[in-house]
Amino acid sequence: MKVKEVAKLTGISVRTLHHYDEIGLLSPERQYESGYREYTDENLETLQQILFFRELGFPLKKIKDVLNSPAFDRREALLMQKKMLLEKRSRLDQMIRLVEKSIQHAEGEIKMTNEEKFEGFDFSHNPYEKEARERWGNKAVDRSNAKLAGMSEEEQEAMTKKMNDIYKQLAGLRQELPASEKAQSAIKEWYDFLNNNFGNYSLEAFKGLGQMYVADERFTKNIDQFGEGLAQFMCDAMAVFADKNK
Fold it and tell me: Domain named HTH merR-type: which ranges (predicted)?
């Protein structure tokens, strides 16, 4: 399909599609001597992925990082997007109910208590823990929480220092190939650290955690404090490590 046909099919402007091409997010695969470029079915599947991620609020740079990752799996991405969209729908339904009640309260039809005015908001949960429980089960998270609770302040500080040291070591290697001996040696240290301190991580869970480093901007922001692009580098190195050690 030519760019105008794709624009008509999807409702996306030609200008937007050209922008995706310019930034390397989505480029038509076929180009002819006439200068015309055509989108393949695979291109359209990639575009669908982009639009799902956009709906979920992912910035274009983050979408590009996710799609270009060697660890990217389309089926797994679709399952994750479905879960996130269902959660978004649930939150929106809850907020709509709160708005409707607030309208009735403003019009004098009902009387809301102060507690009811804020029952649709929830900032108390830990999104990292929720994601971890859903991916790897409650037992792993509970073991991690129990271990942290049983540590003294000095032990927790020592563990944090060790974790930061590994991040710094990996940040210094992020220009290496993820499959290089140095990178794989450092990522093994990270794998061992997680298993020694936060329960038993299977190779599959370890690979999935790496994918979260680039799929979730909260992780990316924290990890990239040690060096721009570290989250992506760790994601790629963790995927290589998991696949090599199966």
Answer: 1-69
